[in-house]
C-alpha cells in the first residue's frame, strides 16, 4: 500500500517545486512538464501502470491530472479497476469513498465547463482585438524563408538539412514545397 504522487506543469519555464513540496510525504512521485491537454503523457502512463491494488494516487489539484471530464473519468475508472484510490488535495476528494467518487465526477464536469468558458472568452477577446487592429497573430516566419528553402532544395539538400540551416520545422518546409508546386 503505497502513496504515489503525480505532479505536472505545462511548460518547461514553470516550476514543479510547490507540487513536489505538497507531495513530499508520498512514497514515489511521477513528474513531468507537458501540457495537460495531451492525453498521452509518458509519466502519467508510467504512474498508471506502476500503481497496485491498495495504493493511493495523490495530486495537488484536479487540473494537474486531467483537463476534461472524459479523460478524468477514464483515469478514475482505470484506478478503480485496479482498486487504487485517487486523492485530490485541494478539494479533499478521496475516491476510496462513494461520496468521493460522486464529487470527482461533479467537480470534473464543472472544471471542463470552466475551461470551455475561458477558451470562449479568449476567442472573443482575440476577435475583438483583430477588429480594433491590435491583434495580428504570429508573424509568418517560415513562409518568409520560402525562397531560401527552395534554393537549398534545388541544391539537393535534404529537408532535414534545410530545416537545420533555416531554423524552421520539417512540416513548414513541406508546406513551403507544396505551395511552390
Task: Tell me about this structure.
This protein has helices spanning 17-22, 42-50, 62-65, 69-81, 98-131, 146-154, 159-166, 170-179, and strands spanning 3-9, 28-33, 56-59, 85-88, 93-94. α6 (146-154) crosses α7 (159-166). The chain has 8 helices and 5 strands. A 5-stranded mixed beta sheet has the order 2-1-3-4-5. The protein starts with a strand and ends with a helix. By secondary structure, the chain is of the alpha/beta class.
SSE arrangement:
Elements: E1 3-9, H1 17-22, E2 28-33, H2 42-50, E3 56-59, H3 62-65, H4 69-81, E4 85-88, E5 93-94, H5 98-131, H6 146-154, H7 159-166, H8 170-179
Parallel strand pairs: 1-2, 1-3, 3-4
Antiparallel strand pairs: 4-5
Helix pairs in contact: 6-7
Beta-strand portion reads 5-15%
Question: Can you give the mean pLDDT?
Answer: 88
Tell me the span between the first and last alpha carbons.
62 Å
- Percent helix, as a range, is 40-55%
Q: How many strands, which pairing sense, and closed or not: the largest β-sheet?
A: 5 strands, mixed
Please state the CA-atom Rg, rounded to the nearest Å.
22 Å
Q: Count helical runs.
A: 8
Structural class, judged by helices and strands?
A: alpha/beta
Shape: elongated
Amino acid at each position: 500500500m503505497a502513496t504515489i504522487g503525480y505532479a505536472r506543469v505545462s511548460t518547461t519555464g514553470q516550476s514543479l517545486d510547490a507540487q513536489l513540496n505538497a507531495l513530499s510525504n508520498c512514497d514515489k512521485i511521477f513528474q513531468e512538464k507537458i501540457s495537460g491537454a495531451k492525453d498521452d503523457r509518458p509519466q502519467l502512463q508510467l504512474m498508471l501502470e506502476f500503481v497496485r491494488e491498495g495504493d493511493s494516487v495523490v495530486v495537488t489539484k484536479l487540473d494537474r491530472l486531467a483537463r476534461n471530464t472524459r479523460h478524468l473519468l477514464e483515469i478514475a475508472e482505470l484506478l478503480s479497476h485496479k482498486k487504487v484510490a485517487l486523492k485530490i488535495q485541494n478539494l479533499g476528494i478521496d475516491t476510496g469513498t462513494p461520496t468521493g467518487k460522486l464529487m470527482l465526477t461533479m467537480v470534473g464536469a464543472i472544471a471542463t465547463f470552466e475551461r470551455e468558458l475561458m477558451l470562449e472568452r479568449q476567442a472573443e477577446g482575440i476577435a475583438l482585438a483583430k477588429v480594433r487592429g491590435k491583434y495580428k497573430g504570429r508573424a509568418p516566419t517560415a513562409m518568409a524563408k520560402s525562397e531560401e528553402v527552395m534554393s537549398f532544395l534545388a541544391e539537393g539538400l535534404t529537408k532535414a538539412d534545410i530545416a537545420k540551416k533555416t531554423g524552421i520545422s520539417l512540416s513548414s518546409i513541406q508546406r513551403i514545397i507544396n505551395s511552390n508546386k
